[in-house]
Structures are given as C-alpha cells and as structure tokens.
Specification:
2 domains, five-stranded antiparallel beta sheet, repeat, lectin, Jelly Rolls, elongated, 13% helix, disordered N terminus, mainly beta, Lectin_gal-bd_dom
Length: 237
C-alpha cells in the first residue's frame, strides 16, 4: 500500500505561528484554529505521488519527515537492513512542502520534488506529512479599485496568497472588450499584500499596475487575495 491518511477534526486545538517581533524581544504568536488536521504517508519511489487536499479551507503544512522513524511503515517486502535505521531524516523537508503547498486547495508532488539529499544510504524511506486545513476569506478587486481586507475586532490578517492578473474570462469582465479578458495566462503572484496587511485588523490596497506592475499589457486585471483572520498573542522571551 503506497500511502494512507489519518484524519482528526480539531475543535479546540490551535496552531501557533511564531514571527519575530522587530520592536521587542518577545515573539508574536498568531493563534488559528484549524478546521481539520490530516496525516499522509507515501512510500518512496519515482512514480509515487503524495496528495494533500482540503475540502474546506486551505493547506498549511505542519510537519514533514522524509526518511524513517520506525521499522514498520512501508516495510512490506523490504529486508531488515532496509528498515533498521529509525533515526533517518532529511533536513529541510518541511520547508520544501510549505513553499509548494501552503495556501493551496490541492497540492500534489512526487518523491523527486522532496528528495533533496540521501540522508541514509541503504534505508528504504517514506514521506510522512501532517497538514491542517485553515479557514480562508477570498476577496477580489477589479483593476483600479480597492481590495479591503477586514477582520473582526481582536483578530488580525494573515495573507495566504495574492495574485494580480487574470486566470479566467468571467471575473471583472463587465463591459470589457473581448481582447481585454482573453489572456487567462496572466498570473502575477505577489507578496505586496502580505507585506502591507499581515498582522493588521484591516487593510486596503489598490489593485493597480502602479502597485503590482503590468504583468500583461492590454489585459484588464484583478487582484485576488486569500487570507484568514486569527487571534494574536504575545509570548514572553
């Protein structure tokens, strides 16, 4: 069996994202209750694919192990020598998956994407990933209008992702010429929204070429932002 999934719905648990505070020696802990948490294990192999998906919300990778931490997982048909090293772990695996998958609805990849080194020669490995599905707010602002991000009192913004461009012909298409909405390969992922809005209760940013650059001249664009609202807290140093 190539992989299996364990699912648990978390009603009271919270995930804490630590960010350095520039003005003090403390850390800010952004507390978010996930909708659900999942675990997926995929045995090593060139053609084996791991798939993360959220029916509700967006993916946030919590942990990932490429290597081996026990002698039973993915052990069928393997020799004792291939299973005996249970202290095998590749550095940086979680960072690879967070970069690829955080903020996505579905994320798929094969082992070649994850395998950046061989942490233990002769050991048969697997990829063990735990991820959560976090609630998300989606907002769209047509070109030259304002995107308004807003959280309830006491909560702050955390931007998953933002894109300024065009990926379909229907969004922000009212009374636009056909040639202004035809280019649906006009994609411009941007960090400006996160840089401007993260950890604020509310934030407005203009969807314009002057802010994000003209990713595809002649196309009428829009800014799409996925974000969540979460409680901030301060942890003593």
């Amino acid at each position: 069996m190539l992989h299996f999934r364990l699912i648990s719905t978390l009603l009271l648990a919270a995930t804490c994202l630590l960010t350095a505070s520039g003005s003090t020696n403390s850390n800010r802990c952004l507390i978010v209750a996930p909708l659900s948490t999942h675990r997926v294990i995929t045995c090593d192999g060139k053609k084996n694919v791991q798939r993360l998906s959220c029916e509700e919300g967006l993916i946030g990778v919590e942990s990932a192990l490429y290597g081996r931490s026990d002698s039973e997982t993915c052990g069928e048909g393997k020799s004792v020598n291939e299973l005996s090293n249970t202290q095998c772990s590749q550095d940086g695996t979680v960072d690879v998956l967070k970069t690829r998958c955080d903020g996505q609805k579905v994320c798929e990849y094969n082992m070649a994407v994850v395998r950046t080194s061989n942490p233990c020669t002769g050991t048969y490995k697997y990829l063990d990933t735990t991820f959560s599905c976090f609630p998300v707010v989606n907002t769209v602002a047509c070109e030259n209008s304002l995107a308004n991000l807003q959280c309830d009192q006491g909560k702050v913004i955390f931007v998953y992702n933002a894109n300024f461009g065009r990926t379909d012909q229907t969004t922000c298409s009212y009374e636009r010429a056909d040639n202004q909405v035809q280019n649906v390969m006009c994609s411009g992922p941007t960090s400006e929204v996160a840089d401007s809005c993260n950890e604020k209760n509310s934030c407005s940013i203009r969807a314009s070429n002057s802010v994000f650059g003209d990713t595809c001249s002649g196309t009428y664009k829009y800014l799409e932002v996925n974000y969540r609202c979460q409680y901030p807290a301060v942890i003593a140093p």
